[in-house]
Predict the 3D structure of the following.
Amino acid sequence: MDACFPGLLPEQLLVDLPEIDAQHEEIFCRIEALKTVCFESSHVPFDEFEALLGYFAMHFATEERIAEEAGLDFVDHARIHEDTLRLLDRALGEMVRGARDAHSFLRYCEYWFERHISEDDRLFIAALQTTDFGQSGGFWRNLELRA
């Protein structure tokens, strides 16, 4: 697939945590690239859809790692991640069997992800900022170095 062009992540969805913002941007890039491929031809690159789900899983693991490092209770947020991966995996299986089309799958991914960032991730970042990690500045600098 084509390389991602920076700036695809809408400014209102930035959470001001470089590692997370970069991953959010990558997810939107992957969704856009899949939309382009699927709209330009009838070919559905199922391996790229699986790679998108793999990237979602990696991103969720990053958020969970950060929460653990900060000592946050992340059980509810992690449950959202688990439920989402299960739902997307099932929907991908439906696409493979021809029971769901790629376009509706991608529209759902994009809508769900935008809502997740604007609601769930914003709450996560706000909670993170109230921790000793968030207030000390050291935690944020370490995250910026990883990004």
Notes: The chain has one domain: 15-140. The chain has six helices and no strands. The chain has a mean pLDDT of 87.
